[in-house]
Amino acid sequence: MSLRAGTKLEKVLAAGHFALTTEVGPPRGPDVDAVLKKARILKGLADGYNVTDNQTAVVRMSSIAGSKILLDAGLEPVAQMTCRDRNRIAMQSDLLGAAALGLRNILAISGDHQGAGASGKLKGHPGAKGVYDVDSMQLISIIKGMRDEGLQAGGDALTSKPAFFIGAAWTPLGPPIEFRVLRLAKKVAAGADFIQTQAVYDIKAFAQQMAKAVDMGLAEKTAILPGIIVPRSAGMLNYMNNNVPGVVVPQELIGRMKDASDPQAEGIKVTLELIEQVRELPGVKGVHLQAIEAEELLPEIINQAGLSPRPEV
Amino acid sequence: MITAEWKPIEEMVGYLRGHKKVLVIGCATCVAECAAGGEREVETLAPLLAMAMQNDGNPVEVKSATLERQCEPEFVEAIAEAAAEADAIVSLACGIGMQLVAERFVDTPLYPGVNTTSLSLREEPGLWTSRCAACGDCVLGLTFGLCPVARCAKSLMNGPCGGTRTDGMCEINQDTPCIWRLIVERATARGRLEDLTQVRPPKNWSNSPAGGPKRMLREDLRS
Question: Is the per-residue pLDDT at A1 higher than 90?
Fold first, then answer.
């Protein structure tokens, strides 16, 4: 099978291994050490490391710079790119720059709106002018056009074709629920090679959406990695259930975390169960495992899940 | 209609310091419909502004007038005399009307009394919501008559983002529906959901404000 970009993530998936990606959020400052600290904890544990692009619309070290730091430290980054801050000219320029730096996994997403961001704790930039020149679907198409045709979106030729393994996001449980699988199909048609989903806690509901994706043949055309965020307290799950669109947390799970004498240990247990449950679903090719700002929990979880060591490819 | 909202009085006071004779003008069309700059609002603002200037230690004489349409030269002539007597004009019209007045009475400073905000529909009494973004490349024929350019916070062209709340509202405002949810519902009701499965290419924004100031020329109307 010919590879699109030959990244480790792509090779792991191509070889039929159960893939594992995680996330490294860049710092709100120019601190290389902050990135390297997370890198040291996570090195060797995953096949790809998402580097977020000013997530929650809060200014952080750029995704491309953070990705390059990871790459140099021996971790394979998945550089996220949102449509919020750049027009198609800047995006393509940054994509060429990313390719020149050796970054080949790109995740194309709409991005948190500047008016809804800042996580409620920081000021953010609600007065910023959002760009949204193109949407995530169109960005996927543009990246594919650059890679496969060697063409810019405007039709001009590139001097050579950048190799990208193209990722996209999927919110399987957001309304309008009947359109979510069709939207996934559009992303696949646009060129998404792999998919990371919004955090999944309601396995039953996710399984139904996944079954539709499998029926439509999408799970063969793209590699779907359900998102799992390590729960650390009932409060955290409640917050996500109420405030993070597309995240549905069963009350039973919230109750279980509430009753736990050691919520952190219970959260790890829940995470291991979730990994096992999604792994059994037809069409699931891996997991996108996150422990937001608690990366130190991941090595133990990954070991216990039997996902370590990562396959050599 | 074009909607507008009053600027804070303090901002107007800031503009008017040093002036003595102020003419407050309104417009009886869009800004009257959206209750920002019609005769009623002009007659409400004029005394408030006089009082605010008095309290600021800069008393001014305030006169008022409401034009039929502030964006038509012949209607603007109606205030020629009053404008000549004033040393400042505050306009409650949209930015179009304001600029015509500024152009006609070029020696008299004109200050905005409102912010022009949107092309909206009066959905209910006291509620106006966006309907158009003047993007210059109408997609309503592809989106079942609901505009994602004006009514999606991200102007998405290919369906809803992950930010649709559980109740179907937009993540950036709990009272604003996710327009893509409504588009999908309308498509479903017509049995045409399939129409929304085609990937729409990047939009051409060159006929929108992003393409530079608009200059619409109709030769057939110029002879």
Answer: no
* Residue ranges in chain A assigned as alpha helix (H): 8-14, 32-42, 63-72, 88-100, 136-144, 177-190, 203-215, 218-221, 234-243, 251-259, 263-279, 298-304
Backbone phi, psi, residue B35, to 5°: 55, 40
Has residue B9 got a pLDDT over 60? yes
CATH of the structural domain B2-117, one choice from 3.40.50.2300, 3.20.20.140, 3.40.50.1170, 3.30.1370.100: 3.40.50.2300
pLDDT reading at A121 higher than 90: no
**What digits encode the pLDDT tens for the residues A173-212?**
999 999 999 999 999 999 999 999 999 999 999 999 999 9
Question: Cα(A73)–Cα(A83) distance, rounded to whole angstroms?
Answer: 28
ipTM given for this complex = 0.96
**Count of alpha carbons within 13 angstroms of residue B8, beta-carbon side:** 3
Give the residue among A26, A151, A173, A15 at the shortest CA–CA distance from A96: A151
Q: How far is A308 from chain B (nearest CA, A)?
A: 31
Task: Inspect the interface and report whether the beta carbons of A115 and B188 lie closer than 8 Å.
Answer: no
Q: In chain B, what are the domain boundaries?
A: 2-117, 138-201
Instruction: Tell me which residues of chain A have a C-beta less than 8 Å from any C-beta of chain B.
Output: 83-84, 88, 110-113, 115-116, 130, 132-138, 141-142, 153, 169, 171, 174-176, 178-179, 182-183, 185-186, 189-190, 198, 245-246, 248
Partner residue opposite A198 with nearest CB, options B154, B162, B180: B162
Q: Across chain A, which distance is largest between two alpha carbons, in Å?
A: 61
